[in-house]
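[Solved] Which block belongs to which protein?

Original post:
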Amino acid sequence: MHALPQDGPGVRIARLRRERHLTQRGLADLSKVPYNTLIKIEQGRLEATPHAVAQLARAMRVGVSTIQGQPYEDDLRADELDLLIGPIREALDVYDLGVDPEIAPRPLQVLREESEGLCAAVRAGEIKRVASNVAALIEETTTAAHTHGGSDGWLILASLYRTSYDVATKLGYADLAQLALTRLDWAAQRASNAVFGGAYQYFRALTYLREGKLRTGQRLIELGLRTIEQADSSREREVVKGQLHLGGSVMAGRAHDEVQAMGHIAEAQRIADQTGEAPRVLWMAFGGTNVGVHRVSVLAELDKYDKAVEMAREMLIPHDWPKSRTSHHWAEVARSQMWLGKLDASFASLLKARKTAPQQAKYHPTVRETYAGLEAAHRRLPETFLSYGSWLTSQP
């Protein structure tokens, strides 16, 4: 019995391959994914690693999200989350219209506090609440920023654009995420804020990481590091610099460049030793914990699953660390455990990902793909396992 739809990544890869008139051998040669591995992926007997998905997507000239099937439109429709995307898209489109005469914006301090509240909520995994409120706040802050003309209003607006990016990314709307980042850059330039400029390049690089375009992503990391050096010396500047190195580490790991990946990790650790835990600086959750989490992620990207699981076992995630990041971490641990054949442990980690941030876990591609891999490996599925799959595709 299968709890998830059968149109999984393997089926999509096979369909895309046939649409391009490629044989399995031809696609294997183009992508550098071993022929026998490709066969097993297409047959659903083997889950594709992020590296393999990136290679196959690049060879067929599609985005990684196309292979993953994001956004999960049927499920989003059932949860009524798809209805919230249109207003966000419209709010992002009024950036250059100036003051809206029908909006009487509240003081900037109030808007700043509400913006910070949405940042905290998205880190807590409260995606639906944030998606329900961010559009109206963007429109109000757009008018306020045009009215006041100073940097404060533009920085609040930049923060809200970043929150829109977070929502779009978590729900799988890659085009909306890119639009939100374009607006973030526009607002940051008006605020003349190089720290936000460096952060923009970091988020922009992550969009290319998700699409498997690693070379472009690595170049954006380098651009971000150059940009951040233009900012005045501050803890905020060091936090963004450290986060850029963490992004570069995953990028290099997925490209299977261990030397570069570990070099980025080492530099991020050096910076974290200076800044300490900085979870609220641009809400990046930078610090020693995030370096450790990224080290686990990089080891998994390098296919060193045993070391990733061992390091995750030794880590202690603080209770007050952002739930969205913690949930993401458990999803990655679950994937590594699955590849090691530790199926029960993998499912236990999926349960932790769900318990920590259920709304995020439900739409997280790693959660879904790992569950599908466990489903294929289990001959006899316990009731708790089947109910997890039903939850992934059910209305709340």
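(Second protein starts here: sequence line, then its structure tokens.)
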Amino acid sequence: MRPGRILFLNGTSSSGKSSIARELLEILDDGVYHLLAVDAFNGMRTKRELGPEELAGALRRMRAGFHRSVAAMAAAGNDVVVDHVLSEPWRLPDCLAVLPPEQVVFVGVHCPLHELARRELARGDRQVGTAAQQFPLVHAHGDYDLECDSSTASPREIAERIRAFLPHRPTPTAFGRLRERYLVADRLAVAG
């Protein structure tokens, strides 16, 4: 059984990841893909009111579990489209630790801040300012296999671009390069 492929979409809230992911599920015909979205995992938690510390702990455990769920799905041979927001410093290193880099196609979904703010208001289901808060953090690592701008192309056009890219992905992948960079930084921190 071959390990599953992981198409990992990273971008701020309202950047278009979910729309692109849905289009990918429509057009990818070289396997059976499953959408794993961090928002869906968040929606599974209890609805009772949680205090700030309890909520922060619950969200961190859920996100760590989400990363491991993606890894488990791929390890079982499932192809996966991941819809995620790498907006906290620990999230990317955790993903790098649990996801096989050779199986991950890392896609940066960009959108200008003014357009993110417009979309956030139009949606009405997001806390205003979330995208602006995430904006300087999500792409701070600076390395992708493929990048797109959802303000200049439709979700279908971006999905088609991703599909066309898949047979030509680089070696090492962005996840491979990032994992090496983080390992070197950890070694230097330990040695320092």
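Accepted answer:
You had them paired correctly. Confirming on the second one: The longest helix spans residues 52-75.
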